[in-house]
Amino acid sequence: MKRTLTGLLLVGAILLTASPIFAQEPTASPGAAKELLAAWNREGGKLVAMAEDFPEDKYDFKPTPDVRSFGEHLLHVAEFIRRINAAARGEAPAKEELTREKYKTRAEVAAVVKQAFADGAAIIESAGADSLGKEVKSPFGNRMVTRQGLWTGALVAAGEHYGSLVVYYRLNGIVPPASRRQN
Amino acid sequence: MNKYLRIAAALAALTLLWAPSGMAAEDASGQTADLVKAWNQAGAKLVAMAEDFPEAKYDYRPTPEVRSFAEQLLHVAGSTYFFASLVKGEKPGEEDLSREKYKTKAEVVAAVKKAVADGEAFLRETAASGLERPVKLPWAENPVTARSLCFLSIEHAGEHYGNLVVYYRLNGMVPPASR
């Protein structure tokens, strides 16, 4: 009896020591996924707000002839986010090119941007913190990245596109939606 | 206590001592490295712009109500210290470093470079002291975590880089990272 109890304690202790830190499993705290999701929704929300707000008759505005128009910029963002989503799922990037010929109206452009960010949010939410440190194939170049590295890089890139579109707004004499709340 | 029981107790105690704390878990997932990498990439692009843009155009602004090229860079640099002060629980200074103080291109470049380097050190310190740590913001009732502010700081640098990309194009130039 005494031997059985000792044996059980020993097995229990061994099982306990097989915690993630011992097994080198790439875990993150639960807050990591929650806050990543909040940042994702914040940056995505600002781009969706612009897509829905910018006057439709200015959707083809471009500050100089060699750069993307407002509408093209948003479609590029949606395409980029789709690539990130596919990489996070471990899938090959979607082949569909998002063009102004296909997405003609403001509602169509806004919808595809919204959907891309919503899909990303769903992946972050369902995968949770446990998968953030796991590596996936980068959609840009032949290298591996952690999922949180992929999402963090995408956040910065989304911020960059948002920042460019802020100037498109200002050049049209319009205050961007996110800056109106502060005024 | 027999020998096996003592071994079991010692193993259990070790497990408790080594159980992943917040920080150990962060390190195991590589989050600190990912945050630092994203920050440094965004920072390097801003430094490259600061070094590359013609000094004669440093006060260019696309419309009268927005920041000039130099003011944008000084804003990002100042914000780095602003965010760091908030996380440290210190009274934050001005979000924008003053153009009157940083008059030349060399001075602005140096300020941006320093802010990027200090920002990396700040991210590492923050991760070491716990990304889950609550931070009180002067303008919000509920505290946020230190990690949230790290994300915000990195996104913010990206947004201003995006602003400056258009400043470049409006001056007929291709941004360094796009060449």
Please tag this protein with its features.
heterodimer; A: 183 residues; Four Helix Bundle (Hemerythrin (Met), subunit A); two-stranded antiparallel ribbon; 62% helix; globular; B: 179 residues; mainly alpha; 6 helices
Task: Describe the overall structure.
The complex is a heterodimer of chains A (183) and B (179). Chain A is 62% helix and 3% strand. Chain A has helices at residues 2-17, 20-23, 30-53, 70-88, 106-127, 147-171, 177-180; strands spanning 135-137, 144-146. With 183 residues, chain A is mainly alpha-helical. Chain A has a two-stranded antiparallel sheet with strand order 1-2. In chain A, helix 3 packs parallel to helix 6 (147-171) and helix 4 packs antiparallel against helix 6 (147-171). The longest helix of chain A is centred in the last third of the chain and has 25 residues, at 147-171. By secondary structure, chain B is mostly helical. Chain B has one domain: Four Helix Bundle (Hemerythrin (Met), subunit A), CATH 1.20.120.450. Chain B has 6 helices and 2 strands, in the order αααααββα. Chain B has a two-stranded antiparallel sheet. In chain B, helix 3 runs antiparallel to helix 5. At the A-B interface, helix 1, helix 2, helix 3 and helix 6 of A face helix 1, helix 2, helix 3 and helix 6 of B.
- Write down the Rg of chain A: 22 Å
Greatest chain-chain contact: A-B, 57 and 56 residues
Average pLDDT for all residues of chain B: 88
What is the typical, i.e. mean, pLDDT of chain A? 87
Spatial sequence of strands, sheet with the most strands of chain B: 1-2
Counting DSSP H or I runs of 4 or more residues, the number of helices of chain A is: 7
- So, the CATH homologous superfamily of chain B? dinb family like domain
Biggest pleated-sheet summary of chain B: 2 strands, antiparallel
Based on DSSP secondary structure assignment, what is the total number of beta strands of chain A?
2
DSSP strand tally of chain B: 2
Q: Give unreliable regions of chain B as ranges.
A: 11-26
Going by helix content, strand content and strand pairing, the class of chain A is mainly alpha
